Amino acid sequence: MAIQWFPGHMHLTKKAIQERIKDIDVVIELLDARLPGSSANPMLAEITSGKPGLKVLNKQDLANPARTALWLAHYNALPATRALALDASEATPARRLIQACHELAPGRAGMAKPMRVLICGIPNVGKSTLINTLTGKRAAKTGDEAGITKLEQRIALADDFYLYDTPGVLWPRIIVARSGYNLAASGAIGRNAFDEEEVALELLGYLTRHYPGALAARYSVDLAGLTDEQLLQAIGRKRGAVQSGGRVNLQKAAEIVIYDLRAANLGRITLETPEEFAAWLAAGLIVDAERQLKKKKPPRSTK
């Protein structure tokens, strides 16, 4: 099942960004370091094209360091783009953003030409926490759920440095199926938009292939020969998610797996590499093109 989530306030955010981008010098896009490809918004890329961009892989402390290095190299190789990784709760690394913005737009400085920066990203990626770190106060609301920030905010980081914060926004149609699952697992998508059991099974399938040691260590389960469904059952039994009659509560087991990923209880996990995401995107574009072609075909005659 394809996962989609684009509430009404996100449409308003899109329109606000389209208006604001005319006056912006640098665009900062916060990405989730655990899913740097899936958390990059193609709609934002289209709206902000032509502007220098800073890709910030946030929550690096939760991500696989080797894979983070691969993603930084990937984004730094793009034209007019810089990339860095940080944990938004750390004050010193956060200040690197200001320096990077001046490197991307060296002509903007002083009261005559103040730096105007737009910061954007998917929901629950840590923008508000980062802004509060930069300002040293609670300039933005924070919370461990999607959709906390609802309005654009202008924040002065210095007399000649203005930061425009926008609500977290996804895009109207997620064409990379794997991205939908990764976004849901990370907490970027509202709970009512996906099935926890389905997301947990997809997550376990990936972790079994790439992080089997992390699963075995966390749940004390022998993975040999288990299907994803059997593994979820085993995790549920180990963690006491058992209903009357000895049946495993799969909903509860799925919630446990998703929570453990978000809380880094499985260790430092990254759910995709640049090569994997490129392959998923290519496949998704083909499927989407086929879907669009079917829509354009005239209905078959019943005569």
Beta strand %: 5-15%
Helix content: 40-55%
Structural class: alpha/beta
Low-confidence stretches: 142-150
**Main β sheet profile:** 6 strands, mixed
Write out the strand line-up for the largest beta sheet, numbering strands in chain order. 3-2-1-4-6-5
Quaternary structure of the protein: single chain
**What is the ordering of alpha helices and beta strands?**
HEHEHEHHEHEEHHHHHH
The overall strand count is 6
Please tally the helical runs, counting DSSP H or I stretches of 4 or more residues: 12
Rounded average pLDDT: 88
End-to-end separation: 35 Å
* Gyration radius, in Å: 21 Å
Shape: globular
Using brief descriptors, characterize the structure shown:
alpha/beta
Tell me what you see in this structure:
The protein has helices at residues 8-20, 42-47, 65-76, 91-94, 96-104, 127-135, 177-186, 196-210, 212-219, 228-238, 250-262, 274-296; strands spanning 26-32, 53-58, 81-86, 115-121, 153-158, 161-165. It has 303 residues and is α/β, with parallel strands linked by helices. The chain is built from twelve helices and six strands. The protein starts with 7 loop residues before the first helix and ends in a 7-residue tail after the last helix. The radius of gyration is 21 Å and the shape is globular. The model is unreliable at 142-150 (pLDDT under 50). Strands 3-2-1-4-6-5 form a six-stranded mixed sheet, with helices on both faces. Helices cover 44% and strands 12% of the residues.
